[in-house]
Write a structure and sequence with these properties.
The chain is built from eight helices and seven strands, in the order βαβαβαβαβαβαααβ. By secondary structure, it is an alpha/beta fold. It is globular and about 50 Å long.
């Protein structure tokens, strides 16, 4: 199904993992793409994976925590496509593992800047444009860490809980403008971030493995993202959807 045919979609954190898989899935669904990532080489690799499709792909690399960058992404979409139909605010980073009393202030500040403030900055720019259009769909990447406690990683948990709060508030504030806002909450998912965590603590993966006894593939998260951006989810807004192999069910 090409349920995003000719829809202009912005994807942040598109250089790897869930962002890359979602960009490929959106292209397959017919979307027109603006891809963003701080790593230009990585986002170019994502664009190369899409190059054989019929879709159009624009790229703008930069720091998603910079206010001017978020606005520039929306401006680029509107300049080329005349509108912004959807956005997947996915960029994020991991935080060093530490108990609250032992955490470093710089790690806290960076986690909040990238994992939470950048979502607010993107939402601000996207919602202004979508309110003018009187329609749009936005998906934010939260985490199961936004739904439950994450011992030894309060920086990350606080940011992701904040993303869910932003998502629900935006959904209520802008529902009258025809805009839907939802969050995906991935559990343990195969990615470069997960690999780095596993290397830092070899026993961690087994400790946090969900009842399904495997990690999610990024493509499994991407399928939910495409659904939420599409009209098939026309009555779905303000939700934080756990995609976690039953991790939050126990």
């Amino acid at each position: 199904m090409r349920e995003l045919e000719n829809k202009a979609i912005l994807v942040t954190g598109a250089g790897s993992g869930i962002g890359r898989a979602s960009a490929v899935a959106i292209a397959r669904a017919g979307g027109l793409l603006v891809l963003a990532d701080i790593n230009r080489a990585a986002v170019l690799e994502t664009a190369a994976l899409i190059s054989g499709s019929e879709t159009e792909v624009l790229i703008l690399d930069g720091d998603i925590a910079a206010p001017t960058h978020c606005q520039a992404l929306v401006d680029l979409a509107v300049k080329r496509f005349g509108r912004l139909d959807g956005a997947f605010n996915n960029a994020g980073i991991e935080s060093p593992m530490a108990r609250i009393a032992d955490a470093d202030e710089q790690d806290w500040d960076r986690s909040i800047a990238v994992n939470l403030k950048s979502v607010w900055l993107c939402l601000r720019a996207e919602l202004r444009q979508m309110e003018r259009q009187k329609y749009g769909a936005i998906v934010n990447t939260a985490s199961v860490g936004g739904l439950i406690a994450v011992p030894n990683n309060a920086c990350y948990a606080a940011a992701k809980h904040g993303v869910i709060g932003l998502t629900r508030t935006a959904a209520v504030e802008y529902v009258g403008s025809g805009i839907r806002v939802n969050a995906v909450c991935p559990g343990l998912t195969k990615s470069a971030m997960t690999q780095r965590l596993a290397e830092a603590d070899p026993g961690l993966m087994q400790t946090i493995m969900p009842p399904m006894k495997r990690m999610a593939e990024p493509e499994e998260i991407a399928e939910v993202v495409v659904f939420l951006l599409s009209e098939r989810a026309s009555y779905l807004t303000g939700q934080a959807i756990a995609i976690d192999g039953a991790a939050t069910a126990v």
